[in-house]
Amino acid sequence: MQEPITAQFKPITVAIDAMGGDLAPQAVITGALDAARGLPDIQVVLVGDEAIVRPLMAQGNPPANLTIRHASQVIDMCDAPSAAIRQKRDSSIAVGMRMVRDGEAHAFVSAGNSGAMMAAATLVLKLQPGIDRPAIAAPFPTKTGYLVMLDAGATMDCKPSNLLQFAHLGNAYARAVMERPLPRIGLLSVGEEPTKGDELTKDTHALLKTSGLNFVGNVEPKEMARGEVDVVVCDGFVGNLMLKAGEAYGSMPMELIKTTLSQTLLRRLAAALLRPAFREVKKQFDYSQYGGALLLGVNGIVVIGHGRSTHFAIENAIRLGARAAAHGLVAPVTSNGAPTDSRGAES
Amino acid sequence: MQEPITAQFKPITVAIDAMGGDLAPQAVITGALDAARGLPDIQVVLVGDEAIVRPLMAQGNPPANLTIRHASQVIDMCDAPSAAIRQKRDSSIAVGMRMVRDGEAHAFVSAGNSGAMMAAATLVLKLQPGIDRPAIAAPFPTKTGYLVMLDAGATMDCKPSNLLQFAHLGNAYARAVMERPLPRIGLLSVGEEPTKGDELTKDTHALLKTSGLNFVGNVEPKEMARGEVDVVVCDGFVGNLMLKAGEAYGSMPMELIKTTLSQTLLRRLAAALLRPAFREVKKQFDYSQYGGALLLGVNGIVVIGHGRSTHFAIENAIRLGARAAAHGLVAPVTSNGAPTDSRGAES
Asked: Mean pLDDT, to the nearest integer, of B134-145?
């Protein structure tokens, strides 16, 4: 174990996996260049094969706050997560995660194999004290902005105690990253009454009522769409399906409108007039503006990007990691692995 | 017990709960009038308080194939389902369900208390042999038409054997009601690989592979939206959330577009030109065109309508019940309660 890091060490450093994502390395390098230029006070470190990364980075006229950390191996999308982490010890994901563990970076961002990211985070950073399973905290659009939903896919089978822990993690996230002083916590269910839902939900409802959190009760998707809560808690199977349903069905009316629109000349003209309005709406549903989702429950800040991340998404993922670090979302680890600050998981 | 009914008994008779739904009795009576006029070969029976129903029906100049069955009580939305069924033995829901049990109707339709409908169906009609839990089969829009998803909310906590039974019920539904000769059955999960999902999904995947059904594997919401399957199987908690997420998030871009559209005069003009296109799209997401969902797994045809059913939705719910009856979705019961025809649950 390295020396303990402190919350005060400067500048904030974000490591980014240069090799992860469908459009890597080019989109990652462009996104990192943009982030480094836009955030001159932070340090951005591209983690990947120097022979590949350096020439691409050089073309972009890199600023001084963008550097490279060499990693000779790559975990690709078809690698089995746990095995890959054990076998490819010099992969960009393993190296980036160790940088967080060892205090060389405040946050690690990757749009690569998300299973490998979760395995590496759990193995290298370890779970926070009092947390039995990790959770992915994903931004979810509402009519007025966004909320955070967790778990969005890290833990498929949950117990009520896991969901209670997720509520605490989401509470800390909403306070630090979304800057909501008293986050409203909702439990995803099929009706508002505490008796509605499956056994897991009903048992969790009882735990949340006495949790000391600002628990507003069960919420259905319509309350989510209206933005009536800041944090929505559910198991990783349901959360991942909700995210995917939002993507698939949220974009469907737009696509249908476009098909219908192209049917007559008059409508095509009208559609041209409306193009800016369509663009504004599409933006609200565009994952890339959020950058990525945070993996919560581990001793460090880990951002999981969308596999199809563009350079714009990468830039925003780096910004998300930097923001979480600046607000002290996860307390820095001490040499015995305990948080030095109570603000992280349970505040 | 009455005499056994046969599949040949004519005409097809659909009983409809005159007292159920937010807009009852007026919307129900109007919908029943429209259905009776549009389907002169079937018999429609309004079940409810004759003193209330007859004058409203008389105003509509009823055709001969629309009649009334008196029921003196009403189960309202705040009644506890099981208790209400036992206590209000002359409620419209109890009377309508007994009409199906006793061979006086092929199908019963209600937009009232759906919990009471499920309780009454299970108590009065009983579960089909080989079925341990009922399932709601709900139509779900796709880019090209619709698929059927089950369970959409009848059974919150499922075992793999329940989901296997739902797959057989959905298969029979798709063959009879959707007229797909070899329905493609998908299992809702968070990835295509059999190893993806929660324990319930992984265990169910193994059962479906050897079920003899046309099982195409796991499907995610994007494959549902593309219409790549005819039947999607999941537990009632997840299915109900998917339905509600589709409603909440499917309509969100439309609402956002409308808000954005009204911002400038030019856009308002363009929007006026596009109104018909918006209307076409909205129709695809409108539950009322489907009429309702079938409760499967019981010895009879039961249609559960949306609480907010309009007369148009009621008319379509009656059509759905008649279509299911005409295609022999559920085998008629014999006096010992066993199906006389293997086509129902397991074909």
From this structure: 90
Q: What is the pLDDT of residues B32-77, one digit of tens each?
A: 999 999 999 999 999 999 999 999 999 999 999 999 999 999 998 8
B248: which chain A residues are within 8 Å (Cβ-Cβ)? Answer: 220-222, 224-225
Tell me what ipTM this predicted complex has. 0.86
Among candidates B75, B118, B164, which has minimal Cα distance to B296?
B118
- All structural domains of chain B, each given as residue ranges with its CATH number in brackets, are 1-131+297-347 (3.40.718.10), 134-291 (3.40.718.10)
**A96-120 residue pLDDT tens:** 999 999 999 999 999 999 999 999 9
Rg of chain A over Cα atoms, rounded to whole angstroms, equals 21
* Residues of chain A contacting residue B284, judged by C-beta atoms under 8 Å apart: 256
Q: With an 8 Å Cβ cutoff, is B143 touching chain A? A: yes
Tell me how far the alpha carbon of residue A239 is from its chain's centroid: 13
Looking up tokens 């594997």 gives B217
Q: What is the pLDDT of residue A189?
A: 98
Q: How far is CA B295 from the centre of its chain?
A: 6
DSSP string for B260-328: HHTTSHHHHHHHHHHHHHHHHHHHHT-GGGT-EEEEESBSSEEEEE-TT--HHHHHHHHHHHHHHHHTT
Residue numbers in B near A156 (CB within 8 A): 190, 197-199
Q: What residues of chain A lie within 8 A of the CB of B266, using their CB?
A: 273
A212: left (phi over 0), alpha (psi -120 to 50) or beta: left
DSSP for A167-220, written as a single string? HHHHHHHHHHTS--SSPPEEEE-SSSSTT-S-HHHHHHHHHHHTSSS-EEEEE-
| Rounded CA separation B235/B163 (Å) | 7
Task: State the number of CA atoms in the 13 A half-sphere of A200 facing the CB.
Answer: 24
Q: With CB atoms and an 8 Å threshold, state whether B254 touches A253.
A: yes
Give CA separation, A51 vs A48, A74, A77, A314, B167, in Å: 9, 13, 21, 21, 53
Q: Is B156 on the interface with A (CB under 8 A)?
A: yes
A197 lies within 8 A of chain B by CB: yes
Judged by CB atoms closer than 8 Å, whether chains meet at B270 and A270 is answered as: yes
Any B CB within 8 A of A251 CB: yes
CB B107 within 8 A of CB B317: no
Q: Does A220 touch chain B (CB under 8 A)?
A: yes
Q: Is A193 left (phi over 0), alpha (psi -120 to 50) or beta?
A: beta
Does B237 contact A261 at a Cβ distance shorter than 8 Å?
Answer: no
**Do A301 and A324 touch, CB atoms closer than 8 A?**
yes
Residue in chain B nearest A238 by alpha carbon: B238
List of E strands, chain A: 13-17, 43-48, 66-70, 107-110, 135-141, 146-150, 185-188, 215-219, 231-233, 292-296, 301-305
CA distances from B31 to A51, B36, B44, B288 (A): 72, 9, 11, 12
CB B296 within 8 A of CB B317: no
Among partner residues A201, A221, A235, which is closest to B249 by beta-carbon distance?
A: A221
Shortest Cα distance, chain A CAs vs residue B275, angstroms: 10
Is B186 part of the contact surface with chain A (CB cutoff 8 Å)?
no
Tell me if A237 and B190 make a contact (CB, 8 A cut-off): yes
Does A203 contact chain B (CB < 8 Å)?
A: no
* B271 Cα distance to chain centroid: 35
Q: What is the pTM of this model?
A: 0.87
Closest chain B C-alpha to A139 CA, distance in angstroms: 14
